[in-house]
Design a protein that fits this description.
5 helices, Alpha/beta knot, single chain, 154 residues, globular, five-stranded parallel sheet, alpha/beta
């Protein structure tokens, strides 16, 4: 299994980045390739509409994807999954490879979401993309412990 997480913008909060990296290491220790990347965040300066900002970020995300494997979008309007459901789907998504997209502060553009099958929601709440990045890594680790029979998930 291979997992690639691509986010709009680089993490600014070092503590959240360290927590993410801790879970990324745990995922790797379970024998799953886990890679992160970022594309530039377009700053909302008032010069561009929010939709235009999301569209530009979507083009950057599209340029980061080689077309292989399952492409999963993270959006609060996506499908909510239990841990057991995520574990079951993760195995299918990441074999051989899954790429997950996290948008910037404004979320993913409709054109990015249209490319993604499935669209996964961490919660109907809104999170910063840095917290979403951490939550994705933790939930992937948790799902993998279910698949591997490691008691962390309980």
């Amino acid at each position: 299994m291979k997992i690639r997480l691509v986010c709009v913008g680089k993490p600014r909060d070092r503590e959240l980045a360290r927590l993410h990296d801790r879970f990324a290491e745990r995922v790797e220790r379970l024998g799953v390739s886990y890679e992160t990347a970022s594309v530039p965040e377009v700053l909302t300066t008032g010069r561009f509409s929010e939709d235009h900002v999301r569209e530009r970020e979507a083009r950057s995300l599209a340029g980061s994807h080689d077309g292989r494997g399952t492409l999963i979008g993270l959006d609060r309007g996506g499908e909510l999954l239990t841990t057991a459901q995520l574990a079951q789907r993760l195995e299918n998504w990441a074999t051989p490879r899954a790429t997950l997209w996290i948008g910037g502060p404004l979320g993913l553009h409709a054109s990015a979401l249209e490319r993604c099958r499935p669209v996964w929601s961490l919660s109907p709440l809104t999170f910063t993309h840095e917290i979403a990045r951490l939550l994705v890594a933790e939930q992937i680790y948790r799902a993998l412990t279910v698949l591997r029979g490691v008691p962390y998930h309980k």
